[in-house]
């Protein structure tokens, strides 16, 4: 048997050894070569110093045993890099650091999963697509590009996909922020010592030996040419091997002005989905889910939930913050008893700046509902009993006259009503106000509470 055949049979056996995972085989064995056999010594060429160290320390027994199996005699193994063979030297590897590829870090947080991702109108498409990618990574939507403003669940959804794949598919998933990608990349380019090669190789392994790569907040990739080039290479390598790529951003691919065109073009090869801010009922669902999962349902009043839902319209992180704040405040001040007044008090500075105009309509609805002991849902419903239709007309009136909102917009915000319906309601209240002083007082009281 010539030396190559010996080594090939050896590698075959190693590959099938149950103590050597496919990943380890790829990493540590696949690029080794048997250089020479000399009495009792076999010299093996390895790509890097790190291989020398790792093979010696972790696989030496398996290697020697297998090698004896193949050759029928006992050999000691001498691992050398090509450079060492050429220069006829042997560098001590005791202090070469070995990154541990076997205990692979996916960076996934298991509390972000599909079970606690609340689905509504604004994210149902994103959710459905994410499920498909979770079921069949690398096949249907590749790359998957998710964009939305901050706090709308991009990161949550990515982790959910990753967790789903790891549990059901046992594939290798890597989640990183784009900053992490950049800093990993900068680290390898900074180093100019002899280990540099190892670092480059490990960077590649980290980002390319995966089945699913997720890069969060790609807008922070930066405009450094080299980083973009490396990302481009990584992308192409994965894509070419049908590995799933998932990218998130706060804007659409076309709006990622800092990125090179060829990258943006590639993002558009797959599927681009966006997540919009949740509507009122979706926000209520989210609040209920958060309260339930924190075991707080019993003492969280409906009007407080509606108060939060009305004021936090565009950021789910903000909703979570509001719940936490109310609970903390109640614990401190009121023996854990949550009331509407307490919630108002605890959140008065919290909502402050983030009131957009849409928020104001929500706010009016909330205040009116509260004032008449009904719910915001009632106001948006089609019910016509006077205990609901009168407050609804009042709320519409305030939105029109005080907030000066367009009729169609008011219609939409009141459960999709026609603008003529809004107009009739406003007129009706105007007329009523000419004679009804009580009503005027009532309305002024509500208006005074709008910030
Ligand atoms: P983004 O990455 O878009 O800024 P995150 O994924 O970090 O947003 O979401 C912010 C917070 O809101 C997280 O705590 C997340 O769990 C929560 N969240 C976002 N979307 C949902 C949803 N649909 N259901 C439940 N929680 C959500
Ligand atoms: Mg995020």
Number of domains: 4
CATH superfamily of the largest domain: P-loop containing nucleotide triphosphate hydrolases
How many DSSP H or I helices? Answer: 20
Shape: elongated
CATH fold-level topology of the largest domain: Rossmann fold
- Counting DSSP E segments of at least 2 residues, the number of strands comes to 8
The average pLDDT value, as a whole number, equals 87
C-alpha end-to-end distance: 88 Å
SSE order, one letter for each helix or strand: HHEEHEHHEHEHHEHEHEHHHHHHHHHH
Helical proportion, percent range: 55-70%
Level-2 CATH architecture of the largest domain: 3-Layer(aba) Sandwich
- Strands of the widest sheet, in order across it, are 5-6-7-4-8
- Range of strand content: 5-15%
Alpha-beta content class: alpha/beta
User: If you compute it from the alpha carbons, what radius of gyration comes out, rounded to the nearest whole angstrom?
Assistant: 32 Å
CATH class of the largest domain, named Alpha Beta
Spans where pLDDT lies below 50 across 5 or more residues: 97-103
Largest sheet: 5 strands, parallel
Q: What small molecules does this complex bind?
A: adenosine-5'-diphosphate, magnesium ion
Model description:
The chain is of the alpha/beta class and 451 residues long. It folds into four domains: 3-93, DnaA, N-terminal domain (GMP Synthetase, Chain A, domain 3, 2-Layer Sandwich); 124-274, P-loop containing nucleotide triphosphate hydrolases (Rossmann fold, 3-Layer(aba) Sandwich), CATH 3.40.50.300; 280-353, Helicase, Ruva Protein, domain 3 (Orthogonal Bundle), CATH 1.10.8; 357-448, Orthogonal Bundle (Chromosomal Replication Initiator Protein Dnaa, Chain: A). Helices cover 56% and strands 9% of the residues. The chain has a five-stranded parallel sheet with strand order 5-6-7-4-8, sandwiched between helices. A three-stranded mixed sheet has the order 1-2-3. Helix 13 crosses helix 14 (340-351) and helix 17 crosses helix 19. The longest helix is centred in the first third of the chain and has 23 residues, at 49-71. It is elongated. Residues 97-103 have low confidence and may be disordered. The protein binds adenosine-5'-diphosphate (ADP) and magnesium ion. Magnesium ion binds at residues 154-155, 216-217.
